[in-house]
Amino acid sequence: MRLYSIFVYLFLYIPIGVIAIFSFNAGRHASQFQGFSTQWYGKALNNPFVMDALQTSLTVAFFSALFASLFGTMAAVALQGIKGPVRTVFDGLIYIAVMIPGIVIGIATLIGLVTLFDLVNPAIAAVWPAGAAAPKLSMGMGSLIAAHTMFTMALVVIIVRARLAGMDRSLTEASSDLYATPMGTFRQVTLPMILPGILAGFLLSFTFSFDDFIIAFFVAGSETTLPIYVFSSIRRGVTPEINAIGTMVLAASLIMLVTAQILLRRGEKRKS
To answer: Nearest 5 degrees, angle CA 101-CA 107-CA 111?
Structure first.
C-alpha cells in the first residue's frame, strides 16, 4: 500500500512539478528546456490581457468569498438550531451542492440566469421612463459573483457548522442566563468561537472562485477571468508564459489553503 500511495502521489504531482520547472525555461517552447530564466514571469506580469484577467478574477473571488462567508455563516447558525428531518434534508442539499459536477452547476446557472433575465428585462423596460434607454441585465461580473457565491457558500456552511458543533453549549446558556440578547450572545460568545472557521471558509471560497473555469466559462459573458484566459491561450499552443501563470496561480492557491488550515488548527487548539 505504501508503494501504491507513492505511485498515486507521483502520478498527481509530477505533471504539476514539470509545469513549475518549465516556467523557468529560457526557450520559447514549453516542452524543450533550454536554460534557466525568469523572463516569462516578467512577460506574464507585463501582459495587459493577463493583468485585466487577473483583476477580474481577484474581484470576483473577493466578493464571492465575502458574500459566501456572510450568507454561509448565517445559514450555518440557522441550521444549528433546526432538529429532526428538516435538518437532515438541508444537510443533504448542502452536501449535494458540493458533490455536483461543476459543468452541471454551470449549465443550470446559465439556464436559470437567462430565464430570469428574459422575465426581468421586459418588466424593467415597461416601467422605465419613455425616451430613456432602459438598463438590461446580462451576463458579466454580477453573474460571475452570484454563481461563485452559490457554489462556495456550501463550503462555508460545512466548515462553520463543524465549528458550531464543537462549541460548548454552556457558554451560550450562561450568556442567556446573564440576560444577554441573542444578538449580544452571538457577537460576544459565538462569533469569536467560530471566527477561525469563517476566515478559513473565506480563504477556501476565494481559492475555489479564483481557480474556477467551468462555471465561469458558462456565466462570464464578455468578462475574462484568468482561467478563461489561460484556456484561450493554450488553444493556440502552450508557451512558458502559460507555465509561469499556472505556477503563480498554484503558489497563490497553496498559500491560501495552508493559511486556511493553520486557522482551523489554531481554532481547534483554542477550543480545546
So the answer is: 145
Q: Which helix (H) or strand (E) holds 172?
A: helix 169-177
Grid coordinates in use for 144?
A: 460571475
Return d(Cα 188, Cα 186) in angstroms, integer.
Answer: 6
Residue 249: name the closest of 11, 56, 54 by CA. 54
Geometric angle at alpha carbon 116, from 112 and 121, rounded to 5°: 150
Give the DSSP per-residue string, 196-259: HHHHHHHHHHHHHHHH--HHHHHH-TT---HHHHHHHHHTT---HHHHHHHHHHHHHHHHHHHH
Distance, CA of 147 to CA of 136 (rounded, Å): 19
172 within 8 A of 192, measured Cβ to Cβ: no
Distance CA 34, CA 15 (A): 19
- pLDDT for the residue 269: 61
Burial of 203 (0-12, 13-18, 19+ CB in 10 A): buried
Strand partners, 25: 36
Amino acid at 213: F
Q: Are 184 and 254 in contact (CB under 8 A)?
A: no
Cell (9 digits) for 153: 457558500
CA distance 247 to 231: 15
- Grid cell, residue 225, equals 477571468
101 pLDDT more than 60: yes
Residues in the chain: 272
137-187: pLDDT as tens digits: 888 888 899 999 988 999 899 888 888 877 767 776 677 667 677 777 777
3-state secondary structure of 25: strand
- Is there a contact between 113 and 219 (Cβ–Cβ < 8 Å)? yes
